[in-house]
Amino acid sequence: MSEKISPLAKVSEKAKIGHGVAIGEFTVIYDNVILGNNVVVESHCVLGYKSPLSHNRPLVISDDSLIRSHCIFYEGSTFGRGLRTGHHAIVRENLSAGIELQIGTLCDFQGDSEIGDFVRTHSSVHIGKKAKIGNCVWIFPYTVLTNDPHPPSDLLTGVVVEDYAVIATMCVILPGVRLGTRSVVGAHSLVNRDVEPDTLVAGIPARKIGMASEVKMRDGSGRAYPWMRHFHRGYPAALLEKWKSEFGDTSQRKSG
User: Fold this and answer.
1) Is the pTM above the cut of 0.70?
2) Is residue 190 within 8 Å of residue 206, measured between CB atoms?
3) Confidence class of residue 253 from pLDDT cuts 50, 70 and 90?
4) Residues 103, 89: contact at Cβ < 8 Å?
5) What domains does the chain contain, in order, with CATH numbers?
């Protein structure tokens, strides 16, 4: 175990703790937890919270992750390298996520879902069970991905969000809806039908406004979408090279 574990933390001897791990005051780590190397868990967190729905699978937090204070993670979920959270996030059981997932403050992930690589969720995002989210997706604050077509019922049908899609703030995506690759959902929208790839939708209910590639940057610097052409902050160099070959590059400043 690492010397960076606070004496005020409660860490089970059955938990598997990697090298260089730091655990803050009053955090509780239950038996069924695996922490990779160089993981930081701040104060007042609960990891591996017991759930009969997990089928006794462990909570796995991979290398180089940061879990900020007051987060609760149930057992049974797996996260790839470089997880980052805000504060007071809750993640339920049986969720599988790729590398460099960002979970915003006060997010509520209800589990039984699949999330790809480099997904960014801002604060207060709710992801209902059985959601499937692709790679490099952006979900902005107060958005809800629903799953029950006849609440309350057991007929859960998760939302599907394909690669590079963007969901702006305060949107509701209804059960079973599929958002196509590189699609954009405008702020304050209620989406009740599938969205075709590369299209912009908005409204209550959401309607097609046009092609996302037609949206211009307000500063006059070019087209806003696909966003991968100009927004690079926080992404690795290898991925940026891939984007450059696929989408071109209009950014004035490169960052990895």
Assistant:
1) yes
2) yes
3) very low
4) yes
5) 4-222 (2.160.10.10), 223-256 (no CATH)
